[in-house]
């Protein structure tokens, strides 16, 4: 009776209802028992914890067949109150992931609804997050230019797949380096679909309460409450400049001012001083022309006007083209085509020009309580 009570409270009926209305997906979602989950995690042993966050705790587990999995134990109780909104988010993640099958999206194997709090069972991704790889660099695994470009292409491919899903496009709504996992070959896997949404084919946007992560969030969405596919493009642009610079999206200095990486990056582009803010490994390892063309693409992804940002399809095509051509060719640059040509020409004729070497006179900062 208790298991039945938990099953209902954890959204089991809601899930059954969704799955029965979309029968093609039913067999993809395995329902695990609470005993299987306890055994897999050694009764939720602290030594098995892979990570903890706002949505819950993730454990490393082993199923009866010997396969290694990641088990996400959702955080459903705030104080003594059960949070029904979080159940909705949890079921939403199950439904969204049941529709997705892509090599660069983390695979959901099943869930357990008969435990006190619901659990999600994913494929185990062994090499942590892209955030850790960028910001906690170790000498044993240098993050080369080639790796950075490949990872950017893999994330872009996943987002293009989500946005162009035939049945109903999916907006991720929380793209950030912490939500990009890396497998045994350091291939990118987009994860964390708790706030993602499917949209009808004819829909151009979602009007929702603002959710997301400060530093990655589309300012247009923040202003209008309307989330479009171009909002994911903006967040991807932030991840792209994180890969280029090795810097965090938001960083505080000693005077409690906060520096926005986006503002700092756009300022450096405007001042022709991009190479002074790049990660040293990028400068040492990457061909200048490729770096510049990727930076120009990132700049377009970060346009304040969502309509002027490229689609994820265009982003994928351009990144693939950069990889194949060494940055010498760029297509579909829209309003900035002439700017791209001018910049590339200036460096072809004078590679030590001010564009690549001038140091910015000041960094762009804004106070913590700023509305900008």
UniProtKB/TrEMBL annotation:
InterPro entries: Kinase-like_dom_sf, Prot_kinase_dom, Ser/Thr_kinase_AS, WAK-like. Gene3D superfamilies: Phosphorylase Kinase, domain 1, Transferase(Phosphotransferase) domain 1. Residues 337-372 are annotated as: Disordered. Residues 44-322 form the Protein kinase domain. It catalyses: L-threonyl-[protein] + ATP = O-phospho-L-threonyl-[protein] + ADP + H(+); L-seryl-[protein] + ATP = O-phospho-L-seryl-[protein] + ADP + H(+). This is Wall-associated receptor kinase-like 1. Transmembrane segments: none annotated. It comes from Gossypium hirsutum. Keywords: ATP-binding, Nucleotide-binding. Residues 347-372 have a biased composition (Polar residues). The keyword Nucleotide-binding applies. It holds the Pfam family Pkinase.
